[in-house]
Design a protein that fits this description.
The complex is a heterodimer of chains A (377) and B (307).
Chain A: H1 7-23, H2 25-45, E1 53-58, H3 64-76, E2 79-83, H4 88-96, E3 102-105, H5 110-116, E4 123-126, H6 131-139, H7 141-153, H8 159-169, H9 180-211, H10 213-218, H11 224-252, H12 262-286, H13 290-307, H14 319-325, H15 329-343, H16 351-371
Parallel strand pairs in A: 1-2, 1-3
Antiparallel strand pairs in A: 3-4
Chain B: E1 6-15, E2 18-28, E3 33-37, H1 44-51, E4 59-64, E5 67-68, H2 73-79, E6 80-83, H3 95-105, H4 111-121, H5 137-149, E7 155-159, H6 167-182, E8 186-191, H7 194-197, E9 202-207, E10 210-215, H8 217-224, E11 227-232, H9 236-243, E12 251-255, E13 258-263, H10 266-280, E14 283-287, H11 291-306
Parallel strand pairs in B: 3-8, 3-9, 6-7, 7-8
Antiparallel strand pairs in B: 1-2, 1-4, 4-5, 9-10, 11-13, 11-14, 12-13
Helix pairs in contact in B: 3-4, 8-11, 9-10
Classes of the chains: A mainly alpha (377), B alpha/beta (307).
Membrane topology (chain A): Multi-pass membrane protein
GO molecular function (chain A): ABC-type transporter activity
Pfam family, one (chain A): ABC2_membrane_3
């Protein structure tokens, strides 16, 4: 008579959860508002490839080569010469107090050396206290400089050739203009989902324990599987709405390209969200109060944010940190979503991360069902 | 069919090395209203949870409605209605929504009709759209009772059901319980109100995890073997001070303008009390020993045993 899963009982649990979500206006609003606010803030504010950074120019001799060099640098978009006529001492002071990020020094014999073909040199000093500030600007430098000089010394290039040369300067595939948002927005989808899904699910179940309703639920004939599905499915729906909001915003507001197949994106998102919701459920079986659930969520959230490759380049981390990063679903999701959205990766290309996410689902739900206390012991 | 509603032996449960329930044996016949009494923290709630399968006993065994408490917890859950000490329904759901939820969990059909009948039966129809969180103590209790009764259980386990409920609602609640018991429902109710204990057919007294007395109210009072004297007069307060600690005097309790003096050695008690009565000019007369006197005595006794 008592089966492991009764649709009637499951429906009763789902219906109850839906009413509770509807009544809790603040939380419900948060679930929809949070993704939008985060998307706007992160999408527009975070920029790991900053441009138009203030720079000072130290150029005692004003000749055509110097001018060519300066305008080439300005054309890269990284440099904005806020102090175009600085002396060496002034420039030193400016960079020391952080008024400029770069000091470009063109020596007085620069023009002569160019004409003689005698290893002309310019000096760029970058404020490398924040490495990401300097890296982009510095990496484009040698190509820019060489090309600018070739133009001046050789024949005047056509505008087409000039444009082509400039596009080569930025050595970034899949994102030729180096727009951080292309990288950030798909990743942000993962981060937003991770935060809201894990936290909401873990708190929803702990709330039952905290308010004493769990005791009641356990004294009635509901099976652990039903209770788990009754919690997981509603939040899966909330996750689906969040996904729709973020993807629509990515397309409409940030113009992130959708190179790959939409169904593959959605499949990846579905498996990822499932893993997250079950993770939240697992956390709730470990914590007795909502506060504990929240703390555990953040304990998990912060390292995954830092090590997954969302904030810092994954390949830039030491091997042990990369290995640690593998244990977070977010790491795999980022590979999947960036691969599909930006590079147009097909199912075969993202099979790895997809299987990894599926493995999370299986392992986490097994653990959650084992951990679930059918009794109050 | 004629198996007793509850028959458990030697139930023991420890939490963190502390024995909360220690070798409790309990029998409740069908159709009986059994009182489960004892001071706070004496293990009443834990014992009830053990019996309805919410906790697994460390030792001991037994049957509830003929089902083994260790193995057949799910069958017990179907036939038992358990009302928790703390209100444990959803405060953000209305009365009707809460009942619909419970009806779904028990797979009661047709759910709509069952809920409607339950609402009418317990006089909740007029408030069915009110959020449970906004109800007063009495109405919350009524909702909880309705939810426990909806699936027509054979045994009702009530854990301090009348805490925070006003006297009128309490009276109505007990009338309801008695009416159901008349129809054959077995009820185990924990309480520490003496007047409620006296409404039970039989009482079981538990202190510090051990069952220390059981029987009908008269039996428990008689078995305690206490003598009670009543002292009256203008100087009862002075008398109370004098009496405390005298030979044979175990309890001195003021009741308004009178003083209850209780002891287990009748002769010794009589001698001490008469002396004080003469000294203070109070009158002395024999009185009925109350259940409360017995419980206070049982409590201090168990404390002695513990140390």
């Amino acid at each position: 008579m008592i089966r492991l899963l009764s649709l009637i009982r499951l429906f009763a649990l789902l219906r109850k959860e839906a009413i509770q979500m509807r009544r809790d206006k603040l939380t419900f609003g948060m679930m929809l508002g949070l993704p939008l606010v985060q998307l706007m803030l992160f999408g527009f504010a975070i920029n790991t490839d900053p441009k138009a950074l203030p720079a000072a120019l130290v150029a005692p001799t004003e000749d055509r080569f110097t001018r060519a060099m300066v305008s080439a640098l300005e054309l890269t978009g990284y440099y904005r010469f806020t102090y175009p006529n600085a002396s060496t001492a002034e420039a030193e002071a400016l960079i020391a107090r952080g008024a400029v990020s770069f000091v470009v020094t063109v020596p007085s014999d620069f023009g002569r050396r160019v004409e003689r073909g005698d290893h002309p040199q310019i000096l760029i000093e970058a404020d490398a206290t924040d490495p990401s500030v300097a890296s982009g600007a510095v990496s484009t430098l040698s190509t820019v400089a060489t090309q600018a000089l070739q133009r001046e010394t050789g024949t005047t290039p056509t505008p087409e050739a000039e444009a082509a040369q400039l596009s080569v300067i930025v050595h970034k595939r899949y994102n030729p203009e180096g727009i951080t948002q292309y990288n950030i927005v798909p990743g942000l989808l993962g981060v937003i989902l991770q935060l809201t899904m894990v936290m909401m699910t873990s708190m929803a179940l702990t709330r039952e324990t905290e308010r004493g309703t769990m005791e009641n639920l356990l004294s009635m004939p509901a099976t652990p599987l039903e209770i788990m599905l009754g919690k997981v499915l509603p939040y899966l729906c909330v996750g689906a709405v969040q996904v729709a909001v973020v993807l629509a915003a990515a397309k409409a507001i940030f113009g992130v390209p959708f190179v790959g197949a939409l169904w593959l994106i959605l499949l990846g998102v579905l498996v990822f969200v499932l893993a997250l919701v079950i993770l939240g459920y697992l956390i709730s079986t470990l914590s007795r109060t909502q506060m504990q659930a929240m703390q555990l969520t953040f304990f998990f959230f912060l390292p995954s944010l830092l090590l997954s490759g969302f904030m810092f380049p994954y390949r830039g981390m030491p091997a042990w940190a990369q290995a640690l990063g593998e244990v977070f679903p977010l790491t795999h999701f980022l590979r999947l979503i960036r691969g599909v959205m930006l590079k147009g990766a097909g199912p075969a290309d993202v099979a790895g991360p997809l299987w990894a996410l599926a493995l999370f689902v299986v392992v986490l739900s097994g653990a959650a069902l084992l951990r679930f206390r059918r009794t109050l012991d | 069919m004629t198996a007793p509603a509850i028959e458990v032996r030697g139930l023991t449960k420890s939490f963190g090395g502390r024995r909360v329930v220690d070798d409790v044996t309990l029998n409740v016949a069908r159709g009986e209203i059994a009182g489960f009494l004892g001071p706070n923290g004496s293990g009443k709630t834990t014992t009830i949870r053990l019996m309805c399968g919410l906790l697994t006993p460390d030792a001991g065994a037994g049957r509830v409605l003929g089902h083994d408490i260790r193995r057949e917890g799910r069958a017990i859950k179907r036939e038992v209605g358990y009302m928790t000490q703390r209100f444990s329904f959803y405060e953000d759901l209305t009365i009707e929504e809460n009942l619909r939820f419970v009806a779904g969990l028990y797979d009661l059909r047709p759910a709509r009709a069952v809920v409607r009948d339950t609402l009418a039966d317990l006089g909740l129809t007029s408030r069915r759209d009110q959020l449970a969180g906004s109800l007063s103590g009495g109405w919350k209790q009524r909702l909880a009772l309705a939810a426990c009764l909806m699936h027509k259980p054979k045994l009702l386990l009530l854990d301090e059901p009348t805490a925070g409920v006003d006297p009128k609602a309490r009276r109505e609640f007990w009338d309801e319980i008695h009416a159901r018991a008349g129809d054959g429902l077995t009820v185990l109710v924990s309480t520490h109100y003496m007047d409620e204990a006296e409404r039970c057919h039989r009482i079981n007294y538990i202190a510090y995890g051990r069952l220390v007395a059981r029987g009908s109210v008269t039996e428990v009072v008689r078995d305690a073997g206490l003598t009670t004297l009543m002292m009256q007069g203008a100087a009862v307060h002075a008398a109370a001070k004098r009496l405390t600690g005298m030979p044979g005097v175990e309890q001195v309790a003021p009741f308004g303008n009178t003083l209850h003096v209780v002891g287990s050695d009748a002769a010794l008690l009589q001698r001490s009390a008469s002396a004080v009565a003469q000294e203070t000019g109070c009158t002395l007369s024999p009185a009925e020993t109350s259940l409360e006197d017995v419980f206070i005595r049982l409590m201090s006794q168990s404390q002695d045993n513990m140390s």
